[in-house]
Amino acid sequence: MAAVTVPIESSAAHDSPARRALRRLLARRTAVFGLAVVVLMALAALFAPWIAPFDPLATSWSLVRKAPNATHWFGTDEVGRDLLSRVIWGGRASLAAGVISVSIAVGVGVPLGMLAGYVGGAVDAVLSRITDAMLAIPFLILAIALAAFLGPSLSNAMIAIGITATPIFVRLARGQVLAVRAEDYVEAARAVGNPPARILLRHILPNILPPVIVQATLAIAAAIIAEASLSFLGLGQQPPAPSWGSMLNTAQRFLTQAPWMAIFPGLAIFLTVLAFNLLGDGLRDALDPKSP
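Above: the chain sequence. Below: its structure as tokens.
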């Protein structure tokens, strides 16, 4: 009797889209580096009370502007506070500002963009003109103006950054909805009598999420820079609470006597922003269905 050969399908054929995207992401070294730095920074900020070697607010006049040494790895500042502890705690403010402000922008901008793209007509015209007007103003200038209007505090800075970033997600969501709503599966869902809310949430939203996720990752990097800028100008986190931006503001007066006061907060901002940008670029390739 002849043997019966049963074809064995490749396990890759059964991979879910999430697994394929994860495999493509992990195949990109720069994206993995960015992800590792983001996770490290997030863990350091989350466990700051246990990781920081000293109280970030404790001053010591005998330790004023001490260079990095075995006890104070990043040195001390103008009033003897440990810089390593302040950089770790400052990461809490910067990462929280990035994540919360972008969450505000996504939570407001994506629904408005979906509404404009799906409904069209006067609703689309009004929302598009408001979006264009806000995008005509430079991002940081609008954030500074809103933060100054709301008052100097970290929470107000996050709100200002979130409002400033909202038009980006309105335009992105609108464009994606305009492209997706003409697809056959959306027309079929409309033909069988699905209400607009169900079509938007069940059929359109899942298919526009990949570009939204990529844009949100990149927007966090921009929000961290914006928060540092606002704190540098005195409109964000208020002293003596640590923030990378406010630490740079203080360090500018001591660049010749204590350069480490500017080097380490600046390096923290650079690495974090670079990591989010690398991760965002990796996610863009990983979530692209045409990507190998």
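The chain is about 70% helix and 0% strand.
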